[in-house]
Amino acid sequence: MITRSKSGIFNPKLYTATLDNKEHDTIQKALCDQNWYQAMRNEYKALIKNKTWSLVPRSVEHKIIGNKWMFRIKQNTDGSIAKYKARIVAKGFQQTEGVDYFETFSPVVKPCIVRIVLSLNMMNKWVVRQVEVNNAFLNGELTEDVYMRQLEGFVDVQKPGHVCKLRKALYGLKQAPRAWYDKLKNSLIKTWNFQNSKADTSLFFKEIHGFIILILIYVNDILITGANSKELERFISEFSRIFALKDLGTLSYFLGIEIAYAQDNMYLSQKKYIRDLRNKADMLECKSCDTPMVTGHKLQKEVKAPTLQHILACKRVLGYLKATEDYGLKFSAGGEMKITGYTDADWACDVDDSKSIGAYCIYFGNNLVSWSSKKQTVVTRSSAESEYRALASASAEIAWIQSLLEELKIECTSLPIIWCDNVSATELAKNPVYHSRTKHIELDIHFVRDKVLARELEISYIPSEEQIADILTKPLTFTHFNYFRAKLKVHPCDYAIGYDLHEANQINIELEKYRSFVPPDTIKIKNSYKENNQRKHRKPNPSKLKPLDMEVDGFKCGANQEKMNNEYEEFLRDLMETLSRITIKITHPLRWHQ
C-alpha cells in the first residue's frame, strides 16, 4: 500500500496555532496589541533614561535619517515565549561613509576561544557565569553629529517639529557596534584594570590574588569565569552599577548552543537549532539517517541548478541531524594540559578543478576545541604535498592557541604534537628531503619545519585507520564514521538541557525520600521485557506480568509487577515524571505488558 509518508508527503503540524506569537510588520498593528505596545513603551523609556538623544530644532543643514520599529519574540529552548521585544532601529543605510561615520568593525569572540575557555573551566573546575547587557548598543558614545526623526507613535506633542540629535549610539547606525565595543573595552581596562588579549581582542583577563578572571564578549552576551567565585560575584556587582545587566546565572545557553552538565562532564548541543532548521525545510517528520552522506557522493556549494539527486542529498543531511539532535560535544574534566592535533587530506578529490580537501582537528587535553575542513587554494602535485599543506594549516592554528595560553600563563605539560598518516609529509616536516618533488612549494608553508627544528612542535606518524581527521575529508561508511565521531567526543546526551543547580539539589532531596520506598538502588527504567501479545485494549493479566528491572545512578534493584501495590506504582509514575522533566531521560515509559 502506498501511503503519503512512504511517498515523502507530510502535512505540517501547527502545534502553536493557539499562541499569540505573531511578529507584526507595521506599527499600526503593534499599537493595537497590548503586549507589543508595552514592549514599545519599555524601549522608549529605556532610551529616554539613557539620554540617547536631545531634541533640537530642525535645520536645513542637518542630514536627517529615519528610523523604524522592529518586533521580535524571544523564545525559550522549548519554544515557549520568553519575551516580547520591540526595538527602534535607525536607518543607517541613509548614512554616508566619511561624513556620518568612520569605523564600523566590532570584534566578537571566536568560537575556538569559547571552547578553550570552557575546557579550562572543566579541567580546573572554575565557576562560569553568564550575563547579558540590556540595550547594549545604547551605551556607545558617538563622536559624529547624527540627526534622526522622532519615533513614530512617541512624538513629543510640545516639540513636534524638532529632531533627535543622537548623543549615544542606536541600533541600525553603522558605527553602533564599534561604539559599544570601545565603551566596554575602555571600561574594563581603565576601571577594573583588565588586559586585552592579543590572540583575541574580545577576550579580557585579569589576575587577582593569584586567581585569574576571564571575560568573553560577543556583542552584549558576556561570559565571566575564574577560580574564585567570590571575586566573580564582586566584579558582577560592580559591573552592574555601570551597565544594566541581566544575570543569567550558570551558563546554560550561549550563541545558540545549549550547555548542560552531567557529573564531571559538560555537553554542548544545538537541538533547538536543528529543529528550527528542519521546521524551515518542512521536514519535521522526515526519516532518520545514520550518516550525513553516502560514500562517494558530495554536496556542492552554490549549485545554480540543483537536480533531484542534490535535493535528496540535502534531505539526507537533515535526516542525519534528526537522528543526532540529542548528540553533543562532550567536555570532560580529566586530561593533561597539552595540545594534540590530527591532520589529513583527500588528494585531488574535486573532479572539477582537481584540488584537495585539507582538514584538521585539535584537542586541548581530552576536549576538541578547533577543527577545519576546507578545499585547498592550489592544485597539489602529490598526496604528500596536500598532506603537508594540511599540516601547515594545523600548525598555524596550534601556534595561535599557544600564544593565547602563554598570555594566560597556562603551561602545557608537553610539546604540541600533530599526528599525520602520510610518511612523506611527516619526514618533509622534519628534514628537507625530496627536494626535486617539493621545491615548488611556497616558502611560507615551510614554517612547519622551523617549528619542529625549534622544538616548538612535534610531528608523528599515525596509521590511516586511526586518523581522526579522516572524517572531515570525505564521506565514510557507518562503521568508520561512527568510530571517528566518537573519537571527536560527539556523544548522545541523556540529560535535561540547561538545568540549574537549584533544581539538581532539589532532585537530590527528593531522591532521598524515594529511596525510603525502594531498596538502596536508584532509578532508571530499563526496557528488559517484551510483550507476549500484540493485541491492544486488554486489561492486564497479573499472572503474565514480567519482572521490571530498574536502575538509577549506578544502583540496581528488582521488583515483580504482580506484587506492586497501588502506592508503589503511583510512586514510580511520579518519580518518572519528575526525573524526565528535570535531570534524567527515561528510556522507556512505565506501562503494563501482556
From TrEMBL:
Pfam families: RVT_2 (PF07727). CDD domains: RNase_HI_RT_Ty1. It comes from the Eukaryota. Residues 50-294 form the Reverse transcriptase Ty1/copia-type domain. PANTHER family: GAG-POL-RELATED RETROTRANSPOSON, RLK (RECEPTOR-LIKE PROTEIN KINASE) 8, PUTATIVE-RELATED. This is Reverse transcriptase Ty1/copia-type domain-containing protein. It comes from Citrus x changshan-huyou.
